[in-house]
Design a protein that fits this description.
350 residues; Rossmann fold; four-stranded parallel sheet; 15 helices; 13% strand
Length: 350
Amino acid sequence: MGIIAPTEEATYRQMHHILEHLIPDFEIREKARLAYRINRLKKEKNAVILGHNYMEAALYHSVPDFTGDSLGLCQMAAETDADVIVFCGVRFMAESAKILNPEKTVLLPATQAGCSLASSITAQQVRDLKKRFPGVPVVTYINTYADVKAETDICCTSSNAQRVIESLGTDTVIFLPDQYLAGNVAEQLGWKMYFPQDDADGSKQPADLKKTVIAWHGACEVHELFTPADVTSVRQQFPDVTVLAHPECKPDVVHEADFTGSTTAMIKYVEEHQAEEYLLLTECAMGDNIISEHPDKNILRLCSHRCPHMAEITLEDTLDSLENMRYEITVPEDIRVKALTSIERMLEIG
């Protein structure tokens, strides 16, 4: 929840209480000045700010009305009655908010804020796959752009991917575009994997595609960096560490972890368990946000990787975006309507 304070000084005091162990005082004071102005503008423009778990700590703890992962923020976007939605995340997330709220103004406080995973597949490539595997349902990770969602039967997130596939009542799916999430889900289901990109002429295609995830070579540039050797090294230094891995990590990394789940599930795990130390194998800003809220928890700052796209969203640009109604997200109506169906089907599952 955004900081509700009557003055800039009161905003500073609240932010200092949360961030004093993480950020220098002079920086907190400057961030408080920006946050106070943003929170005043929110009221004036009837705006709601959605903040992803990967936002920098000063932003995450000051201006968002709601924070969470892709699924949680998608649900919040579907329910808001604000006139303006400011999405502190990346472009595909803001597009999802626009798909769910065509009559509202959706702002992304950055000119790009892309995503390596979303950029790994195009709508035409999805159409080509559907021609090659007629009748096979397409499950697309929420981390994709609107035109890809428009070619999809149903979307999923890292927290509900298995449930989404099981809801289809089929034993073959096209799962796009994260190869590692696909691998982790296939393992949970006990299914095999097939990559048509590696087999253009179909000569290596299994004769029987039952219990098969037809996957794609896409990956998150942050989660792909983690290795089993990282986990081994940390365990050697901290034998009592509890390792939490995001499902976008490689399956061999997930095997080494003590817990695997979405960002929200990881946060909940840390809140509900008492471990000597925690290692979070996900975008490193989330570790800062947990440290800020739980200074008693020992979050190891090892194997840290920052998403360059999430890092584009700053308090400065959020203020500029809201002041000038800049960087509005639009989705062509024909694409929006088709994409809406795939997102709504996902939200029905939860």
